[in-house]
């Protein structure tokens, strides 16, 4: 159903100038709806590079002015997209602050938009009955403004929703609850690194998502604190010049326990270097956090901006997902208080549901405002339900996977490892036999007692000793007779070649288990369901 809107179109108040809020403001301005958009920052500082999907770039492309050099710079130098054979563009990578700056430039061209941006700006109160907000101005005074609708696009902090919840009338309240599906690990981080001056690196893919992990990488990951029985889930993006790299993803739990900011930043830098080197083939010593020259103290604003940007070069935080029990509520005069982006549900950046969803929310929110200025709650609720379902479906599929996947992965492990152990049994060496006994006594893949980390260590030790045995045999003094010597050397050379192939195949099979690790996924998902049910039983809300 649609709300009963005000007879005169008061301005829409949009809180937050992220991609979602700016998109909503632009769409409203196009329709001739007066807009007040509020942001309590002086500038855009989010250096994260994100994956923009087809819907996002379709919207951005619709705003492009081919005669505007700033637009040319944005699309050709700040967005990285590969052109398809038919001339169209694939999904791309872009920095959040560049998207914000692009949208703000477009917004400033409209006369019916009141942009209030600055640290002194903000909403201090909201009266849902009279549909009035109290706006703080630069000079510290408070202005009372009537509105038709409020769009909360202020991110996961949800400050304006908290103001609404201060209302005496519970019908206006919006609660956020833990989502049933959660990330398998909540400790995540980001880091923005650059190629060191004077260093030339080979061209790399525009992005990578943890597809290059192999068995041998588990050791250096563990040396930096990784303690899980699966590879970390990560994303790596680069800029068009192949000179800046952005890491986001799971990090060792130990990093979040570091209290000293500088030490934590160093730990994040080391972790990001390792991940980028694995994913992009870049030497860790060739990239680093950018070192910026100092800013003079007499330029306070510039110094503050530089400090904030430096702090955002690395971030470490707990990623938990919560969603609102309502996407919008009806206010006293028939207007809507609607949630956009993270204000409605936390973004799971592993799936590109942050900026992409926020932009679509902003578009749908304005589309839901009818010609008579009423708000179509039914349409907006349906939109947010679809967004939430898509995220949950993708998370559930990754957590549990098709039922046939795990048996296939385990079966391949058994085949490849059996080949390796058969070769080990043929080696007449006490050290090989001892290492083989240790592996054979361990619980096998597919059993409840199987410990992948322990098994990987045992297998690694067996391979190491087998390799040493073959090397020793190849280096032994020649036996009497030329034919005997060459025969033995050829035999062990062939064995080394065969061993290398078998070891590689076994490691790949074990790596596939690490990547899939359905058992671990089921375990944490089951624990989460029990936790969520307990929270519901206790009526626990965030």
TrEMBL record:
Which keywords does the record carry?
Monooxygenase, NAD, Oxidoreductase
The protein's GO terms of the molecular function aspect are: monooxygenase activity
Annotated FAD/NAD(P)-binding domain ranges read: 12-162
Task: Report the Pfam families cross-referenced here.
Answer: Pyr_redox_2 (PF07992)
Q: Which InterPro entries match?
A: FAD/NAD-bd_sf, FAD/NAD-binding_dom, PheA/TfdB_FAD_monoxygenase
Looking up SUPFAM superfamilies in the UniProt record yields:
FAD/NAD(P)-binding domain
What is this protein called in UniProt?
FAD-dependent monooxygenase
């Amino acid at each position: 159903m649609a709300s009963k809107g005000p007879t005169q179109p008061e301005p829409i108040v949009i809180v937050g100038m992220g991609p979602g809020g700016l998109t909503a403001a632009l769409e409203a301005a196009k329709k001739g709806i007066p807009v007040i958009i509020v942001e309590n920052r002086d500038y855009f500082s989010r250096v994260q590079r994100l994956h923009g999907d087809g819907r996002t770039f379709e919207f951005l492309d619709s705003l492009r002015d081919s005669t505007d050099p700033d637009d040319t710079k944005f699309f050709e130098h700040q967005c990285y997209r590969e052109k398809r054979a038919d001339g169209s563009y694939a999904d791309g990578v872009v920095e959040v602050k560049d998207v914000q700056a692009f949208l703000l430039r477009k917004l400033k061209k409209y006369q019916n938009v009141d942009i209030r941006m600055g640290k002194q700006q903000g909403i201090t109160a909201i009266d849902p009955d009279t549909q009035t907000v109290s706006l703080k101005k630069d000079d510290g005074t408070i202005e009372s403004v009537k509105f038709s609708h409020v769009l909360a696009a202020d991110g996961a902090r949800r400050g304006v929703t908290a103001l609404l919840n201060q209302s005496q009338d519970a019908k206006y309240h919006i609660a956020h609850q833990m989502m049933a599906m959660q990330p398998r690990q909540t400790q995540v981080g980001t880091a923005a690194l650059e190629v060191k001056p004077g260093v030339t690196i080979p061209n790399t893919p525009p992005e990578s998502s943890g597809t290059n992990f192999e068995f041998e990488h588990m050791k250096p990951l563990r040396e930096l604190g990784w303690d899980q029985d699966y590879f970390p889930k990560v994303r790596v993006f680069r800029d068009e010049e192949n000179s800046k790299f952005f890491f986001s993803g799971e990090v060792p739990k130990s990093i979040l326990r570091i209290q000293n900011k500088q030490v934590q930043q160093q730990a994040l830098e080391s972790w990001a270097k390792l991940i980028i080197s694995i994913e992009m083939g870049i030497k860790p010593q060739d990239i680093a956090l950018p070192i910026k020259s100092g800013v003079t103290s007499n330029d306070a604003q510039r110094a503050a901006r530089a400090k904030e940007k430096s702090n955002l070069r690395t971030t470490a935080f707990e990623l938990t997902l919560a969603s609102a029990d309502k996407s919008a509520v009806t206010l006293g005069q028939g207007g809507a208080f609607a949630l956009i982006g993270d204000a409605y549900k936390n973004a799971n950046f592993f799936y590109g549901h942050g900026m992409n969803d926020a932009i679509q929310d902003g578009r749908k929110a304005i589309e839901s405002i009818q010609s008579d200025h009423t708000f179509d709650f039914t349409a907006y609720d349906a939109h947010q339900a679809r967004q939430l379902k898509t995220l949950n479906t993708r998370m559930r599929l990754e957590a549990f996977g098709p039922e046939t996947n795990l048996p296939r992965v385990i079966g391949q492990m058994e085949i490849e490892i059996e080949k390796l152990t058969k070769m080990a049994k043929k080696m007449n060496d006490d050290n090989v036999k001892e290492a083989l006994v240790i592996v054979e006594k361990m619980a096998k893949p597919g059993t409840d007692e199987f410990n992948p980390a322990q098994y990987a260590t045992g297998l690694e030790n067996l391979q190491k000793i087998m390799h040493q045995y073959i090397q020793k045999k190849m280096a032994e003094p020649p036996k009497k007779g030329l034919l005997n010597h060459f025969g033995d050397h050829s035999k062990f050379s062939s064995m080394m070649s065969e061993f290398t192939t078998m070891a590689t195949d076994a490691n790949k099979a074990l790596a596939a288990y690490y990547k899939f690790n359905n058992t671990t996924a089921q375990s944490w998902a089951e624990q989460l369901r029990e936790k969520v049910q307990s929270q519901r039983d206790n009526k626990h809300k965030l």
